[in-house]
């Protein structure tokens, strides 16, 4: 078994394992941090972005490079459509991937790059919420970028990285970055996804049984268990032991794995999500009291549901219950509606509300009472009429490189009473704000990441008790912001890996399950060879199809004698095998001597020396020695004599 690491982004993993001749991709996360190297895409081109000076390298200047790079706020940005870093495609051809298993909707954004226009013919498996909410993410991403198109795409700068300042000169695999896929590619890739439910067992090409189990991280998020009759592999990605709106993590299904692959730990290990949620509510309330408005860049699903609930309750407690909240996203309507029909994927507390009946999420109530309003874009019909300040706006994209958030930064950035609050840990907020400086509005960083932290991961690993733990190398090193935080399991065998590495995992197939047809099973005649030990011969043809081993009966061959030639049909291999006998038991020396006499041997003497038995055949100059587990024929005569003696002794044994 081998593991290929195709992504260096620990929060957006992409791995391939080879197992029983299959290539199984675990997640296909998309690294979005690369968009921070590009200028924002406003809906309407502003004077600020259009008047930025070109960046000119100090040496080896190429005039064709003019216009591709712009200087802004002491940094250099690419003036082009944002591009994304894909999983490595040279380690294994995507067309050779047999199966893709997706753990959650955040880890499937590279799916269109992998399944479309690559020759991919495999199958993709995910839970229903992962598929549907993943669709929202993908469609929103395409809409944001296509609604603000660039006239041309910059490419030459990738050939001049050595001349560029940081961080562009440190860009990883910049020549492999790709612009956003099309909506047609999104639809094509999602059509390849097969929906699975929690704890549903699915036979994957006869090689193993794949089972998604709840990971507790987000709606529909799952850990995957790959099992055979003799091996168990668990893939843990994006898991949480905290109590939030998704169904709790299923730990029992992950116990005692031969190999446990763990990734997707928190990106904010030094902070408590509950503490940061409290800080967010406090900062929003202070902003509103100062007659300012709060901007919260967010994704169209996930933590934003909890933010609606907690923030509304907090504002009501603070006497600010008349402050409007706006949720702006191309998929806002679908996301809000879909979240309220997912009872089976929710925590028990949320499920109980459905049976009352009541809405599992309070934002349905807020929508009916106009406390929360949603729109596709700021230029959507009705928004300008309903919009009033101070207010709270939830919109994308968290990178602030495209989407409606760019518009609000330009509109509110010069007012110090306003604030922007970052909750998504995917992007360093100082780099996110870099092209908008100088910025008067206040910025707060309140990362809310409910995935496993290092202490929770260490505790979980001890409870799961895997034989081998496989984790990214970065998890075994002290975290930069907290030297005492890292994965440490001294009683476990740990294997680490880095981006671009190929590992050989210590999982060797020793046994496999073989099935018998009913015809073969009926021919089994058990023979007891010792107390509690039963043997039987089995003759058949071993057929391997779709990784399934099955023994079928040998074909009956009709033998016809040819009278004209006087000959016959040569026996087949199956005929020979059916006549093979297997001897067992201990030898009775007296019976051997009696059988020798019957076969015509004379002058036979029995010798007992130091407890050892032997038979002397004087006329044939032959000795037969009997040991505990062996019988030796020492023959000085003709070879035919030895063969005849062997057959005589074999007749004295039991056989089956």
UniProtKB/TrEMBL annotation:
Chief place of localization: cytoplasm
Keywords, alphabetical: Cytoplasm, Nucleus
Subcellular location: Cytoplasm; Nucleus
SMART domains (UniProt xref): Beta-Casp
Any GO BP annotation: RNA polymerase II transcription initiation surveillance
Highest rank taxon of the organism: Eukaryota
Gene3D superfamilies per UniProt: 3.40.50.10890, Ribonuclease Z/Hydroxyacylglutathione hydrolase-like
PANTHER family assigned: INTEGRATOR COMPLEX SUBUNIT 9
Stated family: Belongs to the metallo-beta-lactamase superfamily. RNA-metabolizing metallo-beta-lactamase-like family. INTS9 subfamily.
Name of the protein: Integrator complex subunit 9
Native organism taxonomy: Eukaryota, Metazoa, Ecdysozoa, Arthropoda, Hexapoda
């Amino acid at each position: 078994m081998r593991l290929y690491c195709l992504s260096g982004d620990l929060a957006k993993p992409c791995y391939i394992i080879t197992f029983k001749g299959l290539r199984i991709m675990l997640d296909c996360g998309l690294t979005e941090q690369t968009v921070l190297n590009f200028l924002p895409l406003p809906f309407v081109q502003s004077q600020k972005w259009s008047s930025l000076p070109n960046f000119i390298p100090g040496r080896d200047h190429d005039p064709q490079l003019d216009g591709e790079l712009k200087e802004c706020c002491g940094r250099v940005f690419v003036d082009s459509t944002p591009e994304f870093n894909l999983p490595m495609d040279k380690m294994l051809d995507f067309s050779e991937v047999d199966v893709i298993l997706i753990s959650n909707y955040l880890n499937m954004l590279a799916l269109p790059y992998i399944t479309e226009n690559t020759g991919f013919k495999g199958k993709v498996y995910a839970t229903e919420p992962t598929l549907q909410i993943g669709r929202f993410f993908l469609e929103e991403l395409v809409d944001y970028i296509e609604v603000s198109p660039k006239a041309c795409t910059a490419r030459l700068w990738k050939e001049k990285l050595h001349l560029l300042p940081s961080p562009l000169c440190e860009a990883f695999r910049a020549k492999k970055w790709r612009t956003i896929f099309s909506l047609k590619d999104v639809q094509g890739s999602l059509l390849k996804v097969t929906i699975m439910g929690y704890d549903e067992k699915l036979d994957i090409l006869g090689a193993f049984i794949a089972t998604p189990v709840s990971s507790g991280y987000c709606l529909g998020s799952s850990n995957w268990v790959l099992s055979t009759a003799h091996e168990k592999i668990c893939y843990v990605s994006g898991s949480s032991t905290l109590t939030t709106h998704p169904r709790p993590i299923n730990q029992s299904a992950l116990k005692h794995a031969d190999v446990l692959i763990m990734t997707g730990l928190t990106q904010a290990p030094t902070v408590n999500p509950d503490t940061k949620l409290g800080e967010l509510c406090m900062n929003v309330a202070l902003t509103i009291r100062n007659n300012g408005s709060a901007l919260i860049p967010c994704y169209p699903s996930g933590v934003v549901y909890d933010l609606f609930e907690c923030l509304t309750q907090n504002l009501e407690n603070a006497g600010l219950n008349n402050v409007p909240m706006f949720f702006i996203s191309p998929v806002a309507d679908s996301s809000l509606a879909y979240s309220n029909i997912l009872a089976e994927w929710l925590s028990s507390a949320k499920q109980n509300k459905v049976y009352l009946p009541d809405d599992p999420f309070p934002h349905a109530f807020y929508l009916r009472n106009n406390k929360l309003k949603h729109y596709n874009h700021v230029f959507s019909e009705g928004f300008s009429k309903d919009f009033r300040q101070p207010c709270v706006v939830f919109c994308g994209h968290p990178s602030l490189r495209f989407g409606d958030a760019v518009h609000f930064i330009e509109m509110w950035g010069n007012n110090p009473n306003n604030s922007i609050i970052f909750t998504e840990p995917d992007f360093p907020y100082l780099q996110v704000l870099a092209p908008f400086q100088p910025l008067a509005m206040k910025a707060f960083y309140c990362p809310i990441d409910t995935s496993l932290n290092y202490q929770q991961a260490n505790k979980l690993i001890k409870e799961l008790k895997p034989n081998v733990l496989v984790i990214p190398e970065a998890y075994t090193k002290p975290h930069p912001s907290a030297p005492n935080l890292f994965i440490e399991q001294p009683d476990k065998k740990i294997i680490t890996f880095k981006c671009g590495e190929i590992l050989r995992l210590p999982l060797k197939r020793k046994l496999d399950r073989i099935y018998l047809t009913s015809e073969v099973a009926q021919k089994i005649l058990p023979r007891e060879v010792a107390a509690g030990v039963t043997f039987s011969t089995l003759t058949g043809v071993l057929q391997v199809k779709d990784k399934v081993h099955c023994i079928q009966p040998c074909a009956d061959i009709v033998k016809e004698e040819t009278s004209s030639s006087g000959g016959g049909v040569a026996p087949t291999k199956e005929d020979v095998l059916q006549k093979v006998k297997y001897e067992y038991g201990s030898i009775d020396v007296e019976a051997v001597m009696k059988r020798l006499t019957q076969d015509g041997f004379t002058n036979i003497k029995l010798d007992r020396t130091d407890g050892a038995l032997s038979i002397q055949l004087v006329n044939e100059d032959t000795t037969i020695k009997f040991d505990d587990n062996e019988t030796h024929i020492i023959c000085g005569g003709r070879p035919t004599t030895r063969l005849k003696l062997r057959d005589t002794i074999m007749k004295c044994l039991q056989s089956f």
